[in-house]
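Below is the data:
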Amino acid sequence: MPLPLYRHLLHLAVAAVLSAFLTSCSSSSVPTYSAAIQEGQTAAQEMLSQNNASAIAIALVNRDRVIWSETFGFADQDKGVAPTATTMFSMASASKMFATVAVMKLVEKGLVALDTPFVNYVKTFSMADPRYRDITVRMLLNHSSGFPGTDYRNVQTTSPRTDYLDQVLESLAHAQLKAVPGYTNVYCNDGFTLIEALIPAVTGKSYAQFVQDEIFTPLGMSQSRFALEPFADGTFARVYTNGIPQPQDFLNALASGGAYSTASDMAQFARIFLGRGTVGTQRVLTPESLTAMAEDQTINRLHPARSGTMTFGLGWDTVAQPGLQAAGVTGWDKGGDTEMGHYGVAFLVAPDEGLAVVVMGASGFRSHLATAVAERVMLRALAENGRISRFPKPLAKIRPTPAPVPDGLLASIAGVYATDAYLFRLDPQSDGSLVLMWAVANAGAATGSPLTWSQLGLASSYRADGTFTADSNPLDSLRVVSAGGTQFLVRRKPEGYGHYLDESEFGQRVSGTGGTLSAVWQERVKNQWLVVNDIPESVYWPRSEPRLRIAEIPGIAGRIALLPRGATPMILDPSGSDLLAEMMLPTGRDIDALDTMMRSGEEWLRHGSYLHRPLSTVPLLSSGTTTTVLIGTEGYAEWRSIASGSGSKTIAMTGARAWSIYGPDFTLLGIGGTGNNATLPAGTGLGYLQLYGTTGGSVSVTVP
């Protein structure tokens, strides 16, 4: 072969090999993420088929673009309308990320310092507890303020309220702190709600306008907004409860949970954290601000269980997302839920990998489901681009190795443990196992309804890893640890997609005072109270019963369990005062003291911002009469009782804008509004009528 021809053929062969090599490299360095997309599509369809959602939206994004965004289900089931790229979902608590970015922008401008007390900026802020002066802006963003938690009254309604921030500030003005500011991190919505006061104090703009001007508009998030007015039909994913369409949700805590957005808009927002603060040519935050947001805020604070799910950053629920950490990847995550399970969101970022996943859904789609879907998409993407070796599988249910119980262990951990909403008791058994009991309230109408202990789950046996676990559920375990001068019950169980275990505090050890309740508190245990300042526009009305009850706790003398409006027991300490039952769980999420007040010669109770009147003084409406019920200048609900007869009674009302009627055990019998009549079934006993009217007006009630 002539040398020139040989060289020519050799050159072609080398070029072909090089071209194939470069093509292969290009193909592998720019994956299509088809497997991740398929994983997301499969996960979404599973959620829809299991009735966990009516509509879902998902987006996968990298530093440069939205890789994939798709919607599933129905935005309007009745009309058969599917969601589109512009269909909005409530962002719920993922809205806190907008508040955090807004604050960091003020920090960069020198208008706010994270470690300066909040009261330095909002001069009118005050609390009954003088330690409020030590609460810094940082503590609002990392959940360490020590606030009671969430003011649930009017937080989620069917029409917008512009006075919710004022209500929170007024409620806090009467409140104590449950912990020293900075002592521990406990999820707290009210802390973020106060950012709505901070923004106008230093900028002169409303919170909503500032976020619009500084975040939504610069990033082109044209489908993102706060629910300050009703949205047009078809613009948002409608929520369904048992197949029944619900009114639009208005989350009046704007900074804590009030934003609506789309998967594509949130994907654009996610690029802030993938591009070191820059999206395209738009600088939103400096790298230093992102670094500050990603610092673990739980270090050197009381945390008996190091929960990966709640390793707070600034705004972030976790800066050590355990689902990604289990695969050796750094992740930041913010979830969100609205009340009644209306919407759920997961906002998952893998900053070092340059990827983020946004998942949102409506109608029973909780944030833990959104997180599971987001983890599946992200992990499949990381396996597809070669960052992790394989897509992980959910953990196998392998029984932990049994072990002898250490001497004295059972006796040292036996007793009662409490959260903000539950009371548990650990009961050692003669065979060395442990039974978990929980306090259940009698739902009847008897005064001073006692709590009774009921077994929760099967007995657990001691294991070589130091936990107690039941053979039937080997991945769900309990242990007791000492911290902060007391003991904590810690639970470990699968989370997210189910390929990892995470721990959380399941209860704090509580004990009695060594004495009995004072005579004043013993008298209150015999009585019941009814809420007067909820509103018909609240999503809670009338889903939860209106009673507030007080019960003694079996085996815990001198403490009380509060049963507020149908909720589970909340432990309080009345030993220091006949007028106030104090909070006693610094790690309890949403817990309020119980305060007393006198109104028109009656003792009323205040729990958070809810006011309750005594049931014992509710007037009885006589049969065969028409009564004019005056509505006070505060617009509070009025209560009346009605005795049933041998036949049903139809109660006619004129002037009522809303009403509800209950049986003697406060089972809801009916609700209505203007022009509707209430019915009390025959033989009911004593029924209770809750009336809402025009402030300062009256309602005419006719009882046959």
